[in-house]
């Protein structure tokens, strides 16, 4: 189970729209800042947008890892490699 890897290309595709929205938010905050106050007017808004994106990337990467592990897991396969359709007999 430890060898299941995240599909990086799939993750990139999933996050592309969020990346573009974040980039636009940062650039908009700079473009809308007053002359002479670019940093003061844009830093907080840019940081908020980047913090949201950081959280989205981390959560999406964790979910992608969960999905990869679940896809590799076969609940019907026994440890010795054989498969069984029985769930076992109850012990008393």
Explain what you see.
The chain has 2 helices and no strands. The protein is rod-shaped, with a radius of gyration of 23 Å. With 92 residues, the chain is mainly alpha-helical. It has helices spanning 8-31, 38-72. The relative contact order is 0.15. The longest helix has 35 residues, at 38-72. Helix content is 64%, strand content 0%. It has one domain. Residues 72-92 are annotated as: Disordered. Residues 82-92 have a biased composition (Polar residues).
Roughly how many Å apart are the termini? 32 Å
Which assembly state applies to the chains in this document? single chain
Q: By helix and strand content, what is the structural category? A: mainly alpha
Order of helices and strands: HH
The Rg value, from CA coordinates, equals 23 Å
Number of strands: 0
Instruction: Report strand %.
Output: under 5%
Q: What is the typical, i.e. mean, pLDDT?
A: 88
Number of domains: 1
With helices defined by DSSP (H or I, 4 residues minimum), what is the helix count?
2
Largest sheet: none
Outline type = rod-shaped
- Helical proportion, percent range: 55-70%
Biased composition (Polar residues): 82-92
Region (Disordered): 72-92
């Amino acid at each position: 189970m430890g060898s299941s890897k995240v599909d990086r290309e799939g993750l990139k595709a999933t996050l592309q729209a969020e990346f573009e929205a974040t980039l636009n938010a940062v650039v908009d905050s700079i473009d809308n800042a007053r002359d002479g106050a670019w940093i003061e007017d844009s830093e907080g808004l840019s940081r908020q947008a980047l913090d949201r994106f950081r959280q989205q990337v981390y959560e999406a990467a964790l979910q992608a890892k969960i999905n990869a592990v679940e896809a590799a897991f076969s609940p019907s396969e026994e440890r010795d490699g054989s498969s069984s359709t029985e769930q076992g007999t109850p012990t008393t």
